[in-house]
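Q: Entry one of two.
A:
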Amino acid sequence: MAALQPLHVSTPTAPVIPTGALSIRVVQVPRGPLYRVEGTHVFIPCNVTQDEGTDRLVFRWDFVKAGTETGTPIAVVSTQDSGYPDARYQPRVRAGEIYIHRLSRSSAQLHLTHLQRGDQGQYECKVGSKAQLTSQSAKVELKGWH
């Protein structure tokens, strides 16, 4: 079994401040590195702070393949829309190999089971609400072991 490189979690990105917003929602992912090997399970927490809203938050995760960081993000999974995943991820989402576990209104985890070499790249947690069309995000990077 080939090993994946360390899971490196980057510093959270600066929050996006929507025009007219009453509060600043800050999305955070952990700092790394975390280490995993191919075939294992990893979860990446995504937490929201400084959010004074009461609406149920929507968590979405997107992915940019390693080596194509300027590429177009690929939809992976969402807490709101079962049709959100890109066709490349739908089989793994339907099989329960990729999912979001909601811990609270403002905290959720992306789970990737049975890690594959193709899982290497940058993951972005986007958080919004039905009442607020804009979202804030933070990014993490998963690197493979050679």
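Q: Entry two of two.
A:
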Amino acid sequence: MEENLESVKDVTQITGLTEFQASKGLSEEESGRVRWDVDAANTTEQLSYLEAPRPFKNPNYVKKTSRRSKNLKAVLTQEREREKAERERRRLEKAESVMDVDGEQEEDIPTYTSIEAPPSLMPQRHYCDITGLEAPYTDPATKLRYHDKSIYELIKGLSASAVKEYLAARGVNSIVK
């Protein structure tokens, strides 16, 4: 082994190659490639962010592994309870601050879970008395609402008692002419 090292040193002195190049038996062209690879590896290591400090990370952060997720029913129940407690708190505040002279009740504020809401500002939709689809038309003779001309043809063929039944189902008690 020592003889090998001495011969490598002799070759490096004669040719000007490094000990590494001489020990691998590389030519000058191949040694240039190896030198470039070694330089690239050193540069890559120097520019690597892998070992760089990360000041934006909290070193004391511990991830909570026991995080529990709730189902929709539990979330809605919890929201309902919170709203109920809020309404009760408001009612108590109102009772303590002012005596109820007029007997007016405070309206509950509608939320996405409560069904109580003020009437819509949009016009009421009309539905076909026969099919239940949206009805843009009304028969002037019978006052039945209908969806399209095929339903109108059917309405023209109805008897007066059938028309009364359809109107009663809608909640209209008018006299059919």
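A: Comment on entry two: The chain has three domains: 1-66, 68-115, 124-177. Helices lie at 2-15, 19-24, 28-47, 72-97, 149-156, 160-170.
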